[in-house]
Amino acid sequence: MSANDTVTVVEAHPLLAQLVARHGQWVDSDNIAHWRASQGGDNVLLFAGDPARFPESLDVAVVLPELQKASQFSGKPFSIAVAVPEDAQALALTFGSNRWPTLMFFRDGQYVTTLSGMHDWSDYLNLMAQSLDTPVGRAPTVGIPVVSSTANGPACH
Predict the structure, then answer these.
(1) Domain residue extents for the chain
(2) How large is the angle between the packed helices 56-73 and 121-133, nearest 10 degrees?
(3) C-beta of residue 60 within 8 angstroms of C-beta of residue 103
(4) Is the peptide bond before 101 cis (omega within 30 degrees of 0)?
(5) Residue 133 contacts by C-beta under 8 Å, 6 or more apart in sequence?
(6) What is the DSSP string of 75-107?
(7) Strand order from edge to edge, sheet including 24-27
(8) Taking Cα atoms as reference points, which of 110, 100, 105 lies closest to residue 67?
(9) Close Cβ partners of 72 (under 8 Å, ≥ 6 residues apart)
(10) Over its length of 157 residues, how does the chain's per-residue pLDDT go in tens digits?
């Protein structure tokens, strides 16, 4: 850890905390821009939400390191991060996701796709392989057209 690194202290289910301690890092609204900018290759961000409301989240947290191992054997490794529980909903919505739990795939900091819910192992392997082969794209957020203030007609402000 360098002098510029910060430690994020998070109150979370022990299984999620263990996942981060062993395999990844926490991502919140304060560090997501830096996390995306510093990425290289494929990365998976787990949006677990509240495990009391979404018990499948803990199942996905257990399976995720095994998927990571399988991805390494297939030659398409990925890194793991977990959205801080209190920021997870707002962060997920910025990428157009509202299902729990969700694995969100990024490549070199760019959005790729999401994989929501818990799946059978063979389905997970197939879906993960498809996700890692998917090109980067635009997150499925609500698009709001941007209009230039120099366009014909009065400006809005």
Answers:
(1) 14-133
(2) 60
(3) yes
(4) yes
(5) 76
(6) T--EEEEEE-HHHHHHHHHHTT---SSEEEEEE
(7) 24-27, 78-83, 42-47, 102-107, 110-116
(8) 105
(9) none
(10) 433 444 557 788 999 999 999 999 999 999 999 999 999 999 999 999 888 999 999 999 999 999 999 999 989 999 999 999 999 999 999 999 989 999 999 999 999 999 999 999 999 999 999 999 999 999 987 555 445 555 555 545 4
CATH of 14-133, one of 3.40.30.10, 3.30.420.40, 3.30.2270.10, 3.30.70.20: 3.40.30.10
3-class secondary structure, 61: helix
Three-state secondary structure call for residue 109: coil
Q: How far apart are alpha carbons 83 and 19 in whole angstroms?
A: 12
Q: How many whole angstroms separate alpha carbon 92 and alpha carbon 18?
A: 22
Query: Could you tell me the pTM of the whole model?
Result: 0.84
Helix (H, G, I), strand (E, B) or coil at 28: coil
